[in-house]
Design goal:
Length: 323
């Protein structure tokens, strides 16, 4: 991995253990599959939500947001950091919620020290401090997918690129705020108490999604909540506790897999399969290759039909790419 910031996934298990590795206690993330205030209430208490969406690369900066209003006072009185580096927006969104909820969450000594150190900084310097924090960067990068390929190219995204961005929503001081490090200040969406947050944030998210074409479905939403195992213990629900423990075990396994690349393993497996086929004779090997080619062709045909058809030129190009 590079010395910079690597891309991480929008995944409840990644985010939960990222915060745990930063020293945060009794917090987890849950993935939300519908914009339903009631289901969000049931996961409570809800400290905030992290929303992933396709960023409109060609969109010009605006003096006023499309929805809500900039609150420049909150940029100074609350933890708000400008995003100054690529690939850090996921962790920055988590910290935007977390460091504004340190009155109800044990954020641990390291993050407490970071917040105290940056407390008097303006948003741009807070962003620089976050980007240059070795602790936060190293923990963030530990959850990036391992890759055997080094991409040295650095370029600005164009309107043709699919670029995704994380923003946070949380309640602060009796208001619902959108915290986006690419904006000049927090965006206020009106009055909101901690208890009202699930009801108030859902309409805001719905309005944001409505800005996109109806066929756009590439969104992801996770909520930061109190560790659900605590609640299960409080009410004595052993079945629920067992389910949550199993979920944690699955997350740990998935996070362990993310730290490894399997290109070498896959290559050796393919070599072994080819050797075994060759050992059966040239005729069996040719039959196997022919069968695989036909299977690939059938899959490509089915895929083109699902997409509404494609020209022969596109089909040939796709076949080369797939093979």
């Amino acid at each position: 991995m590079s010395a910079g910031w690597n891309t991480i996934e929008s995944d409840a298990g990644v985010f939960t253990y990222l915060l745990e590795n930063l020293g945060v206690k009794d917090v987890q993330f849950v993935e939300l599959f519908s914009l339903d205030a009631e289901s969000l209430h049931q996961r409570g208490p809800v400290y905030g939500v992290i929303f992933l969406f396709k960023y409109p690369v060609g969109e010009k900066a605006r003096e006023t947001p499309i929805d809500g209003a900039f609150d420049y006072d909150a940029a100074e009185s609350r933890f708000f950091a400008a995003q100054t580096i690529q690939n850090a927006c996921g962790t920055q969104a988590l910290l935007s919620v977390l460091l504004n909820k340190d009155d109800s969450i044990d954020i641990g000594p390291k993050l407490r020290e970071f917040k105290d150190f940056t407390g008097a900084f303006p948003a741009d310097l807070r962003g620089e401090a976050l980007s240059n924090s070795e602790l936060i960067r190293d923990v963030h990068n530990s959850f990036a997918r391992a890759s055997p390929f080094a991409d040295e190219a650095q370029r600005l995204a164009t309107e043709e690129d699919d670029v995704y961005h994380f923003v946070a929503y949380t309640e602060m001081g009796g208001k619902l705020y959108e915290l986006d490090g690419l904006q000049p200040a927090p965006i206020s969406h009106g009055s909101c108490s901690f208890e009202e947050f699930p009801n108030k944030v859902i309409p805001v998210l719905q309005r944001r999604i409505e800005r996109y074409p109806a066929q756009e479905i590439r969104f992801n939403l996770v909520a930061m909540v109190r560790d659900l195992r605590i609640r299960a213990r409080e009410i004595g629900d052993q079945d629920w506790l067992y389910q949550e423990e199993q979920r944690r075990n699955a997350w740990q396994w998935e996070n362990a897999l993310r730290r490894h690349n399997f290109v070498g393993f896959i290559g050796e497996t393919l070599k072994g399969v080819v050797r075994s086929k060759l050992a059966e004779g040239e005729a069996k090997y040719a039959e196997w290759v022919d069968e695989a080619t036909k299977t690939t062709s059938t899959r490509l045909t089915e895929r083109r039909r699902a997409k509404g058809g494609a020209s022969e030129e596109e089909a040939d190009e796709e076949r080369v790419t797939e093979q």
